[in-house]
Inverse folding.
């Protein structure tokens, strides 16, 4: 590689130049007292989103990374700024998101003196990141930035941490050559492993595909759907894998595990093999699967060995999902499965659609006056917002309705961003800002969130207004923390002196009005469609709008009888 000596006038100038090299279009954060980061970015075309809270900044950067496939970048101060960001790092690591967190650090000559906001930040962040480094000397910064970017995007993606010692922030930074490329390298599968797993797949008579978050951005030309057709396999996704495959495909049957209900859950009892693409087989994705060491073998395709799950029978391939699917497709060329299983999958999908319509009708009849059935919210939302929208979600009691296909369904152009297994409250509300800035200007971004999550996020409404990130927020208001209230009711009954929900005004109308954002509140189902349409017109014109919808605590998603700790009680199907 040719060498081109260069010197940046300061550390932050070097960082700004590296971000330009990475193709970063948005940076999120809350800098410390030193405004050098903003000074370095002043004349760049990078969209800088100045947040009110470091946790939300990391959530936004995570949403940006999930939507774009590129590293999210977050810049913060030191000490409590770093500890505030840890929840965001926990989510980014759990979601396998490429993210670069850059933080201030105590001056080298003051380390150990009890300096202002001094903290052993490396020790604090290491459990949550793939790699953490402190840069004490200016000449070491370029290599640290390059390694951080390489580790963030390669292998199983994840967050990395770069700490900039205070004394080098204004020092010139020498660089001896051009920045290295920072693109993910996609390892091909080992031929022997590919052939062995292809043989197991060919032998299966009733296969299912499980598409996880590791398959995001790896389904160009619909290779996964074509592979499913070759096998006659039913297609399921994990929650994080949603948006990877077209949910209008006739073999698609919904989200696996916790979000699979009758009659489609019968497929899991009848299947003889699961082909898991980019899934760590997390607890929610396997909830309700047949138990026993000799049941339901899995062929798992994942990038990193740390994602392997070997407590089930089966086999695995450590490689890029796209390369693995293409390799299997080549080896299975000419394979003609028995069409009986594919027909069974299609018939169950049709029965699921009818059962969902019946459930929605039943929920509508049970809805108390002054509330709107959540199934109605999802149906009206689909009509109000153009196709191709990205739905950003939380994981609360009522907003979980949208996880249950086909109460909400993504077409070939639809997108989805959800929290990982960590499900930190407020993630979806904040991540929607990053998603909006990562997606093309004309693509709709809608966040369906509970009122508990939204209220935790509301301090960022001025950030939303300043950022010009037009998002449609649909807030399902059940009076507070509905999941906790349901668990409390199960333990203490309705007479408890404790409460997580109360009917009271939210105050959101005043906040949105103060920041020039749209707001509507709906308590009548017949007024919902017009409210969503009007709100969408505002968003399409460039203004974030919030639609608060009153919903009933008892309006639980399909297949659930109520909360039971971490997971719901499942209803018995007829």
């Amino acid at each position: 590689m040719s060498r081109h000596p260069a010197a940046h006038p300061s550390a932050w100038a070097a960082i700004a130049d590296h971000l330009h090299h990475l193709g970063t279009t948005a940076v999120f954060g809350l800098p410390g007292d030193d405004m050098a980061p903003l000074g370095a970015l002043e004349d760049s075309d990078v969209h800088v989103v100045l947040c009110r809270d470091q946790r939300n900044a990391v959530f936004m950067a995570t949403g940006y990374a999930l939507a774009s496939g590129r590293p999210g970048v977050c810049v913060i101060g030191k000490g409590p700024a770093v500890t505030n960001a840890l929840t965001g790092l926990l989510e980014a690591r759990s979601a396998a998101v490429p993210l670069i967190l850059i933080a201030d650090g105590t001056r080298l000559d003051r380390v150990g003196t009890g300096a202002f906001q001094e903290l052993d930040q490396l020790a604090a962040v290491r459990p949550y990141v793939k790699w953490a480094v402190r840069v004490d000397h200016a000449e070491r910064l370029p290599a640290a930035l390059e390694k951080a970017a390489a580790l963030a995007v390669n292998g199983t993606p994840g967050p990395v941490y770069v700490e900039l010692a205070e004394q080098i922030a204004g020092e010139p930074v020498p660089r001896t050559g051009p920045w290295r490329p920072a693109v993910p390298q996609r390892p091909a599968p080992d031929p022997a492993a590919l052939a062995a797993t292809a043989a197991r797949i060919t032998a299966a008579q009733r296969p299912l595909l499980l598409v996880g978050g590791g398959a995001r951005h790896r389904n160009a030309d619909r290779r996964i759907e074509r592979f499913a057709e070759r096998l006659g396999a039913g297609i399921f996704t994990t929650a994080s894998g949603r948006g990877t495959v077209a949910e209008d495909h006739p073999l698609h049957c919904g989200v696996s595990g916790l979000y699979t209900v009758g009659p489609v859950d019968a497929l899991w009892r009848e299947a003889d093999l699961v082909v898991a693409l980019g899934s760590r087989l997390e607890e929610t994705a396997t909830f309700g699967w047949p138990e026993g060491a000799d049941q339901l073998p899995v062929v798992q395709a994942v990038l990193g060995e740390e994602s392997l799950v070997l407590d089930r029978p089966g086999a695995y391939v450590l490689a890029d999902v796209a390369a693995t699917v293409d390799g299997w497709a080549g080896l299975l060329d000419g394979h003609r499965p028995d069409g009986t299983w594919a027909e069974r999958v299609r018939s169950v999908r049709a029965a699921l659609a009818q059962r969902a319509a019946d459930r929605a009708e039943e929920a509508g009849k049970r809805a108390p006056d002054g509330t709107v059935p959540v199934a109605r919210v999802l149906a009206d939302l689909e009509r109000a917002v153009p196709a191709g929208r990205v739905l950003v979600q939380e994981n609360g009691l009522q907003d979980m309705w949208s996880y249950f296909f086909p109460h909400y369904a993504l077409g070939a152009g639809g997108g989805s961003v959800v929290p990982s297994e960590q499900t930190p409250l407020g993630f979806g509300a904040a991540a929607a800002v990053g998603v909006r800035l990562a997606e093309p200007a004309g693509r709709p971004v809608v966040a369906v969130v509970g009122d508990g999550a939204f209220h935790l996020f509301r301090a960022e409404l001025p950030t939303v207004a300043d950022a010009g990130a037009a998002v449609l927020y649909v807030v399902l208001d059940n009076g507070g923390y509905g999941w906790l209230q349901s668990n409390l009711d199960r333990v203490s009954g309705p007479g408890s002196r404790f409460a997580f929900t109360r009917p009271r005004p939210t105050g959101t109308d005043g906040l949105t009005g103060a920041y020039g954002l749209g707001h509507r509140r709906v308590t009548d189902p017949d007024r919902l469609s017009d409210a969503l349409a009007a709100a969408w017109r505002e968003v399409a014109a460039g203004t974030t709008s919030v639609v608060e919808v009153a919903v009933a605590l008892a309006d639980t998603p399909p297949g659930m009888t109520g909360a039971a700790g971490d997971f719901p009680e499942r209803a018995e199907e007829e």
Observations:
- The radius of gyration is 24 Å.
- The longest helix spans residues 339-366.
